[in-house]
Amino acid sequence: MAITLEGYEGPRPIRPEEHEAVRELSRSIFFPDRQPSQEGPRTWPMALHPDVRANSLAIFYGGLPVSTTCSLERDVSLCGARLRLGYIGGVCTHPDHRKRGLAGALFAASFQRFREHGVDFVYISGTRPLYYAVGANHIGSFSLFTVPPSALAGGPAVALRRATLEDAPLLCRLNERDGVHMARTSCDYELLLQHGYCAGRPCQFLIIEVEGVPAGYLFGWSLEREGERQLHVLELRGERLAIRSALGLLAEEGSHVRVEVPRGDLLEALLRARGLVSEPGRTPGTLKLLDFCSVMAKLRPYFASHLGAELAASLRFLEAGNRYLMLADRGAFTIDGETNLLWTLLGAPAGETASGVTATGSLSDLGERCLPLPLPSVCLNLI
After folding, report:
1. Among 92, 147, 159, 366, which is least packed, fewest CB within 10 Å?
2. Chosen CATH of 8-119 out of 3.30.1300.10, 2.70.98.40, 3.40.630.30, 1.20.120.80
3. How far apart are CA 141 and CA 263, in angstroms?
4. Is the pTM of this model over 0.90?
5. Are strands 64-78 and 57-61 parallel, antiparallel or unpaired?
6. 204, exposed or middle or buried, with CB in 10 Å at 0-12, 13-18, 19+?
7. Cβ(53)–Cβ(191) below 8 Å
């Protein structure tokens, strides 16, 4: 979708010689207190990723960038199924060129590119009326636990060490071993390790070792407030009993630990077995599903592992206006409304409940057996 306003060019990819001007536009809006000579996006290092640079779009006026957005794509492995997640961030427009539909045009162009690349879900950083207007919304894909001291005593003996830049390949390998994970390059980890920030907040990776062997990692926002160490774990990888012991060790050492656990993850059951009570989660940004039928077809291996191969093979998927249907021999699962669809598939955020869902016959228990989907954390790659 090209802008038709007189004098404007784009949306289009950014040429190599234009990147510095686009970066300065973003700095002037998101980091106005930092000088041009300073590294504006240092606290959002994923915005420096070469993949983001290659996929950014901008609109120009008089040869200068006046509106821009960044994007990134990553594959998601979900219990045998393969999906693709797109990110949108860094959406900004020069004050002199606002209220002219530039950001909307950039969104339309980004979504079109995502569809061409087979992207299934789009995560948008932040909350603006524009994001809700395109059908994006918050989700509750995780449960939030607070770990008190002594609650997780026992279990495997573990040691924790803070990851360094040299550990980026190890973090990649630990990530890939999980049945539910985001496919990442070493560069993803290197940027966060180098700058020590994620999505505007100080962060750290803690490698979990059992008898000197790396068994997993914890990744999260970390800070010290009024003399208290605080760690908000956003992503966990590795052997779940070792992870539980690691969380207990952090709490015993005096850290205030909160952890986001994907819905349906084994760790969720292990923490509840120790008496921990969770709160419903809520993503800070918003998610949008691009193509219901395509996503459901990609999820057939996941459905087969939960419903059986014969029933999963018979599934058919239809989208009729604002109604979404999964049909099988002698059964149907129907969802009314785009927001209800998102919350049914990925979990309703705190304070909300999905409605408009009808299940009959052979699919009467599909929701209980398969949903919400175990989406991995989306925070590490935020732009």
Report:
1. 159
2. 3.40.630.30
3. 6
4. yes
5. antiparallel
6. middle
7. no
